[in-house]
Amino acid sequence: MLFGIHGWTTHRIDGVVMSKRILLPCEQLEQLYSTEGWSMVEIAAQMGCCAATVSKRIHECGIKVRSGRFPSSKITPEILERLYSEEQLPIARIAAHLGVSIGTVHNRRRAYGLSPRRMRKAPISFTIRPKTKRIRESRNFFVWVSG
After folding, report:
1. Are 114 and 80 in contact (CB under 8 A)?
2. Residue 24 pLDDT > 60
3. Given pLDDT bands bounded at 50, 70 and 90, which one contains residue 89?
4. Which residues contact 42 (CB under 8 A, 6 or more apart)?
5. What one-character-per-residue DSSP string does the chain give?
6. Of 10, 50, 116, 141, which is the most buried if we count CB atoms within 10 A?
7. For the chain, which residues make up each domain, given as ranges?
């Protein structure tokens, strides 16, 4: 048995979980992961094991792991303060402008210590009724009489 080319995986036989060794050669992992850009989940599905096994083997083989699932966003405190505090843009518009999610804008706002804005109240619209007296209430409606 060669060290460094095997990984463990499990499978079920008649409901009993059994372990088996599978081949995960470093060269093949390097080809799929680094050269062809496959994800660890895709490699695991192809090899018949779990993504954790692939991750472990990639680290054991010394293959450089790609950083993060999403590219890091370049939201500086100055940009966010200008858009959020000075220009008073809505969070959704800031997110669209910067190409990030609304949650990212909220998280950065908190991280940079920008206080949340108060909810703006819409102007209250109302109509003035002439003085009336309520004379009778019937089920779900009122009858009004001017007078």
Report:
1. yes
2. yes
3. very high
4. 32
5. --TTSEEEEEEEETTEEEEEEEE--HHHHIIIIIIS---HHHHHHHHTS-HHHHHHHHHHTTPPPPP-SSPPP---HHHHHIIIIIS---HHHHHHHHTS-HHHHHHHHHHTTPPPPPPPPPPPP--PPPPEEEEEEETTEEEEEE-
6. 50
7. 6-60, 77-111
Is the pLDDT assigned to residue 137 strictly greater than 70? no
Whole-angstrom distance, CA of residue 44 vs CA of residue 54 = 6
| Burial readout 31-52 (b: 16 or more C-beta within 10 A, e: otherwise) | ebbeeeebebeebbeebebbee
Handedness of CA 37, 41, 44, 48 (dihedral sign): negative
Give the model's pLDDT for residue 84.
93
Enter the pTM of the model.
0.41
Looking at residue 130, its pLDDT comes to 62
- Write down the pLDDT at residue 29: 92
